[in-house]
Amino acid sequence: MKVNKFFIGGMLILGAVVFLIWNAAQSTQEFFMTIDELNAKGASVVDKNLRLSGAVIGDTIQYDAQTLTLTFEAAHVPGDQAALETEGGLAQALHEAVMDPSRARMTIVYVGPKPDLLRNEAQAIVTGKLGADGVFYANELLLKCPTKYEEAVPEQAGK
Amino acid sequence: MIAELGFGVLALTFLTTLYSVFAAVYGEYSKSPALVESARRAMLLTWPLLTLTAGILIYLLVNNRFEVQFVYEVTSRSMPTYLKVTAWWGGQAGSLLFWSWLMSAFASLVTLRKWDRDRELLPWVIVVAGVTMAFFIGMNLFFENPFAQIYRTFDGIAAYTFQPANSILFTAEDGRGLNPLLRHPGMVIHPPMLYLGFVSFVIPYAFAMAALITGRTDDRWIRLTRRWALWAWLFLTCGLVLGGRWAYDVLGWGGYWGWDPVEIAAFMPWLTGTAFLHSVMIQEKRGSFKRWNMLLVILTYDLVIFGTFLTRSGVLSSVHAFAQSAIGPLFFGFIGLTLITSVALIFYRWDALGSETEMTSFLSREALFLFNNLLFISILIVCFWGVIYPLVSELFTGQKVTVGPPFYERATGPIFAGLLFLMGIAPLSAWGHSTMKTLGRALWKPTILAVVITVIIFLAYTRNPYALIGFFLVAFTILVTFYEYGRGIFARMRSQGENFPAAFWNLTGRNRRRYGGYIVHLSIMLMAIGILGIELFQVETQGTIAVGDSLQLSGYTIKYKEVASWDDFPSGVNYTRAVVEVYDKDGDLLGSLHPRKDYYFDAQQNMTIPGQLASMKDEVYVLLIDWKPINPDGATFKIFVNPLVNWLWLGSLVFIVGILIAAWPDRDPEPVMVREGKSLTQTSAAD
Q: Which residues numbered 520-559 in B keep a CB inside 8 Å of some CB on A?
């Protein structure tokens, strides 16, 4: 009987944890997509939490320091690791994505400080929502520059 | 030539480690003390050998030997010498070597101790430490050679361990240099601290495995490694806090913890380690939880290996990349193998690990410790789930779904609150049996006071329910801890006739583990104050203003005075520094801040250094975002006011004091522990 008491207690805690995870995941989960996938889904994902990855096109970076509004275009890079490998690794895939004018592109708008790592051929991972106007409004912007440093380059977070 | 020498010494160390493992096993089976002694000496030899290897690597780093790939990747001519030395752990190959070097130092320390009473554990401790070390050295030797040199062949330029045919050595003019973000004092000591914590947790694991293998499943292994675990915990915590402080000072987003996979990877062993430190006390006092403790130490060990892999492998953007990196499968193989072997050993000794006492009361100390353990494991589950969620979701739904910081905050928030509450009541409960009545008697005074404080906060400061719950729990636990401490002090003052400081000193000194633990609890409360402050009440503003203009935030006026920009060619940096003045509500000048933007030529990268005006009340944190070189009148600033954040850093200092009190070696010989309760007369079999 005594074991049961603690067993029930433990089960209750476990149940509570499962509920917490489920509850938190429901409201905060982000759908990870590539630009191609996003274009294919289009209007059906407007207003959902999305996480998008793409290659930064350097020429399109615009920053309005008055309003701290950052606008840039990102080109499609495959999300699948195997597909990245066939393109010769992340750095090469990013390079090709930027050079290839036929790649799908997405305009991304982010308000905040301009991240130090934002540059041509960096990988941008943005979190936010797709607007009805087809522009991606990011509330978080992470950047990775695989060409430079292989080790734990801290991803710069912007909030 | 020197690089080849380094590789040679590394290979020699690998063989020595393997010899040590085999000699220990064979010596044990053939009952040959001489062979075990030989294994011990071989283990002692690994540290000088690895020190030599590391010395060679440092020589190459300091002398700009860019023909060596690792040197080329992590240093550049413009870096100061101390950064070149610390670039040792600035990349994967060097980090692995650093890990092995620390491991060998600890293994040597352990083998140097007096083994008279625990002779039978020795060979197995050597085996576990040796296998772990051999794994890491092997990684260096076969996959991530820090001494690989760059050769030009007909196919192009690439790094090789051995010179390929028809090739010439290729020496770059300058190295790529360490990422500027990592050229920071916090980043210089943060990785070693974390690694010290990681590696020291291997020792308790080694003793646990030795205990399982030899069948000495009493708590001898726990007693022997208690201090190791405490030191490991200290280093790991310092490593985590320093990492947070570095992020706060360098990354310029006004935060210190972003729940990214690297941070979580370092946090997970901390969670199991903390649970372990608590639950070993139940085993010592009550003789129960033996299997659980074994499981915790095994989990900690494997999470340490996992953390080492994750923090330095550069596979973080995608969980899928784990399997792609050359050393990924090996790491997972090693983790799987050690996990299965260790857990199998627990089953093998299942009966011997049975509990000596039975838990009866929900409010007994051991039951509360059990809840504490469950809560730590719950946080671990949340973290682990968050990391693997993308994989799981893709597997089942085909859609990759990720979770970010809000997920972790929501899911762990209530669990952390539960932990704070337990921290308050657990020290007052008794081993074996406690009732609501006895607990209530001890708790009612602090509870009433905490309610009063919460009401004051409600009336004067905030109506945020999360903040009120949080501050209530913090106030409650601080008061209970003070109350408990005070009762001990006053009892001493009465009975021994000591004055307050003497009573305080002696009380803490006589039972350092208990009172050191209280100080650690208090420090966690201080940290909680800081975390509640910045998480719930951080405010920010941003704007572009001309010289002489100001921005207002949270009662502060931030006035832009001037900006200057200059090149520092020897260091390869362009500095842009603004001067801003901070005034309070009454217009009094509080101080001048100098937010900076540094541009590193070699890395073509900016680094944004905030200007910080710190007080215990809050911190004004000013970032220089942008300024126009042609028209220096306008500059863009982003400003945070982070309430109470400095309590977080203060708490971490108090934390160190608490751990030092609890972990400092005793002058007296180890006291013989007598268990309370049913096994009152039983002392540990080993003594």
A: 542, 544
Which among B255, B316, B411 is the nearest to A24, CB-wise?
A: B411
Burial of B528 (0-12, 13-18, 19+ CB in 10 A): buried
Residue B490's domain spans which residues? Answer: 414-535+648-666
- C-alpha span between B61 and B56 (Å, rounded): 9
Residue B680 forms part of a structural domain: no
From CA B418, how far away is CA B469, in angstroms rounded?
A: 11
Q: What is the DSSP letter of B68?
A: B
Interface contact A17, partner B, CB < 8 A: yes
User: What's the token pair of residue A56?
Assistant: 């930064």
Distance CA A3, CA B362 (A): 11
Q: Which percentage of chain B shows pLDDT scores above 90?
A: 43
CATH class of A30-144: mainly beta
Dihedral sign (CA B12, B17, B23, B26): negative
> Where are chain A's structural domains?
30-144
If you count them, how many residues does chain B have? 687
Which whole-number Å values give the CA distances from B232 to A138, B50, B89, B203, B663, in the listed order?
40, 21, 19, 9, 10
B627 and B576 co-located in one domain: yes
B546 plus B498 within the same structural domain:
no
Contact B221, B684 (CB under 8 A): no
* Tokens found for residue A63: 């920053």
Phi and psi angles of residue A76, each rounded to the nearest 5 degrees, phi first: -65, 130
How confident is the model at residue B629, as a pLDDT? 61
Complex ipTM over 0.85: no
The string over B478-507, giving b where at least 16 C-beta atoms fall within 10 Å of a residue's C-beta and e elsewhere, is bbbbebbbeebbeebbeeeebeeeebbeeb
Query: What DSSP assignment string belongs to B249-312?
Result: III-SS-S----HHHHHHHHHHHHHHHHHHHHHHHHHHS--HHHHHHHHHHHHHHHHHHHHHHH
pLDDT tier, B313 (very low <50, low <70, confident <90, very high otherwise): low
Distance CA B262, CA B634 (A): 38
Considering only residues 120 to 159 of chain A, which have any Cβ-Cβ distance to chain B shorter than 8 Å?
Answer: 123, 125, 127, 140, 144, 148-159
Cα(B110)–Cα(B24) distance, integer angstroms: 15
- Considering the domain architecture, whether residues B169 and B294 belong to the same structural domain is answered as yes
Query: What confidence category does residue B499 fall into, taking pLDDT thresholds of 50, 70 and 90?
Result: confident
pTM of the complete model: 0.87
Say whether pLDDT at A159 is over 60: no
Residue type, B104: S
Q: Which tokens belong to B317?
A: 């953007």
Question: Which residue(s) pair with A33 in the sheet?
Answer: A52
β-bridge partners, A106: A74
Among the partner-chain residues A5, A80, A151, the one whose CB lies closest to the CB of B314 is A151
